[in-house]
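Quick review question:
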């Protein structure tokens, strides 16, 4: 086998192995239950030091949620709890401390 064919085969084999390694879920990866993912439909956004979550309730019962904002170099912040009636939408915000490096991520917590 020529050098080009050998090199191509080696690259293809290592690429396939790399693909398998990078796409396999980690042992500690959390799996959401199928029903939980459809109770609230939420959109997140951030601007400077503030993270915002807007959620719509897709159920036939009231659900409470709040924004959870991860702040760089400061403590994480939590928005006000909002209770959303069936079919309704509401927004929760939280702002990072002025000395933080800003919003790292925005998520929500149901309660």
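Suggested answer, residue by residue:
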């Amino acid at each position: 086998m020529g050098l080009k064919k050998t090199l191509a085969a080696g690259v293809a084999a290592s690429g396939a192995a790399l693909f398998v390694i990078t796409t396999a879920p980690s042992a500690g990866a959390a799996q959401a239950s199928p029903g939980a993912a459809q109770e609230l439909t939420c959109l997140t956004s951030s601007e400077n030091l503030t993270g915002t979550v807007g959620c719509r309730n897709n159920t036939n019962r009231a659900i409470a949620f709040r924004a959870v904002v991860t702040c760089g170099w400061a403590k994480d912040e939590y928005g006000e709890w909002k209770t959303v009636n069936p079919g309704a939408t509401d927004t929760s915000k939280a702002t990072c401390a002025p000395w933080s490096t800003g919003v790292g991520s925005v998520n929500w917590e149901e309660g």
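Why it works: The helical segments are 3-23. Confidence is low (pLDDT under 50) at residues 6-33.
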